[in-house]
Design goal:
Elements lengths: L6 E5 L6 H17 L5 E5 L5 H7 L6 E4 L16 H6 L4 E4 L2 H4 L6 H13 L3 E6 L3 H5 L3 H12 L10 E4 L13 H18 L7 E5 L7 H5 L6 E4 L6 H15 L1
Parallel strand pairs: 1-2, 1-8, 2-3, 3-4, 4-5, 5-6, 6-7, 7-8
Bound molecules: 2-phosphoglycolic acid.
The site of 2-phosphoglycolic acid has 13 residues, from β8.
């Protein structure tokens, strides 16, 4: 079964020491204990915090994810972390192809696909990120770029149970700017149509939006057709705001 909607994932990026991470997760657990309603909440902390947080999350009420993984299983790859290691540390998910990896570290579609395939082989769900740059957006190349990234980095033989897609315009990440809901709707409708062609039961693939999602725009964004949830960066560092995004998503999807 694909994850229950809304799927709200926090990408902490390179932020947070042990005490911050524990406090954030404790706050979220407190809210979950008192809440009802459907949905899927997950956090992707820095790798150094995975095993610490896994001990707080052993009943899986909040999913745990890595922010990246190697395409290799093991060996002489200094500084890299394999998908098996993430699974062993308690992760269920791993982000691959984030723009900070594609553009910041020169990762190609081919490498992103190999990482996503390594994740699937390790029993993890890849959260495959795609998104156009500002120049591509301005030149009207968004759909073309997304199609290329999807075709180039989607792993083979995936199903809606083994994959999450996140559309994140590069120009919206960390900038406070977002596409209009009309633009998000258009892009997600296109991606949904592509997923129907590329993945069996592609209607069921969880398709997230990411880029400057905050408590005050979350409901509107998650009310857009074909937006099954959000991938949240900066606002996920504030547990109260992250929880508000999640409840806004619940309100938008019911
Ligand atoms: P942001 O980041 O919410 O801070 O814009 C989103 C992301 O990078 O996933």
């Amino acid at each position: 079964m694909p994850f229950a909607k809304p799927v709200v994932l926090g990408n902490w990026k390179m932020n947070g020491l042990r005490a911050d991470g524990i406090a954030r997760v404790e706050t979220l657990r407190e809210h979950i204990r008192q809440a009802s309603g459907q949905g899927t909440l997950g956090v992707c902390p820095p790798a150094t915090l995975l095993t610490v947080l896994e001990q707080l999350l052993d009943n899986r009420e909040i999913l745990l994810g890595g922010q990246d993984c190697s395409s290799e299983r093991q060996g002489a790859f200094t500084g890299d972390i394999s998908a098996d290691m993430l699974a062993d540390a308690g992760c269920q998910l791993v982000i691959v192809g984030h723009s900070e990896r594609r553009h910041g570290h020169g990762e190609t579609d081919e490498l992103v696909r190999a990482k996503a395939e390594a994740a699937v082989a390790a029993g993890l769900i890849p959260v495959l990120c795609i998104g156009e740059t500002e120049a591509e957006w301005e030149d009207g190349e968004t759909i073309q770029v997304l199609d290329g990234q999807l075709d180039g980095s989607l792993p083979e033989n995936v199903t809606p149970d083994s994959l999450i897609i996140a559309y994140e315009p590069v120009w919206a990440i960390g900038t406070g700017r977002t596409p209009s809901t009309v633009d998000i709707a258009r892009t997600h409708a296109h991606l949904r149509a592509r997923l129907r062609e590329l993945v069996p039961d592609g209607d069921q693939v969880r398709l997230l939006y990411g880029g400057s999602v905050k408590a005050d725009n979350a409901r509107e964004i998650m009310g857009v057709p074909e937006v099954d949830g959000v991938l949240v960066g900066g606002a996920s560092l504030d547990a109260e705001q992250f929880w508000a995004i999640y409840t806004a998503g619940q309100a938008a999807t019911t």
